[in-house]
Design a protein that fits this description.
The protein is mainly α and 263 residues long. The protein contains 12 helices and 2 strands, in the order ααααββαααααααα. The longest helix is centred in the last third of the chain and has 26 residues.
């Protein structure tokens, strides 16, 4: 019964990716761990394949709808992925496991990551809700600005470990000036690159995967993303922004609750 529920949730994972361009890794890893009893470390590798395959299928529809900004993919996405790789491969290991230790008060590296993650999500969510207008085209086409903001987004995503579309989409809307639907399509393309880089940095885990399970789970996620992309056609951009903002705020609240329960 748990596995049936897990497969149903995989459809929702794909639907989230298709509708708002994010939620893949944040939702996939807990489902794999709690519903299929997969080791958390191995689950991250499964997640890269599943989210990458789902994003690939969703990006095909967005390509047909002209919702992918290729200039932003290269100027924003490539620097983001490069910095993400550097942070995950080398810089994160330099952060000590215990940040603050004072009597019984302890802030560990994992707790610090959760705190930063929830704060960033709260700020991004509020910005999406409050800010009604997009940036001008002149601001959007500022090459230096796009590269710098891509690097910052990659550093944040690399440090917190999970984020993906939930960080990329607000960044593309608030910093790159893309309308929501184009930001979602562009985000899926960047996520594909993200997943490829992540897989290449975890090749030792690839041989441990159950590919029958991987393809079956990804198949349900692809069904969900196709439905989400189809649904996206009927929702105006102005409504998508606040909906996405409230989703991010809700996710940041869940992270806060998890911190209190776990720590």
């Amino acid at each position: 019964m748990l596995q049936v529920t897990g497969y149903c949730l995989s459809i929702f994972i794909g639907f989230s990716l298709g509708l708002v361009g994010g939620g893949g890794s944040i939702l996939t890893i807990p489902v794999l761990v709690f519903f299929f009893n997969i080791d958390p470390l191995l689950a991250t590798t499964y997640s890269l394949f599943i989210v990458g395959l789902a994003a690939l299928s969703g990006s095909v529809n967005h390509y047909r709808l002209h919702n992918i900004d290729y200039k932003t993919v290269f100027l924003f996405g490539i620097p983001s992925v490069v910095i993400l790789f550097i942070v995950r491969r080398w810089l994160l290991a330099m952060v000590p496991s215990t940040i603050i230790l004072f009597n019984q008060f302890v802030i560990s590296k994992s707790l610090l990551i959760l705190i930063i993650f929830s704060i960033i999500m709260s700020i991004a969510g509020l910005s999406m809700i409050i800010k009604k207008n997009y940036l001008s085209l002149k601001q959007e086409q500022n090459i230096t600005r796009l590269i710098i903001e891509g690097c910052i987004t990659g550093a944040i995503t690399g440090f917190i470990g999970i984020g993906g579309g939930f960080i990329i989409v607000p960044s593309l809307v608030l910093f790159a000036g893309l309308p929501m639907k184009k930001a979602i399509g562009t985000s899926l393309t960047i996520i594909i690159i993200n997943c490829m880089v992540g897989i290449l940095s975890n090749l030792e885990m690839v041989k441990l995967l159950n590919y029958f399970f991987l393809l079956s789970f990804a198949g349900f996620a692809i069904i969900g993303i196709l439905v989400g992309t189809w649904t996206l056609r009927f929702i105006p951009d102005k409504r998508l922004k606040p909906v996405f903002g409230w989703m991010i705020l809700g996710m940041s609240l869940l992270v806060f609750i998890r911190m209190f329960i776990q720590y």
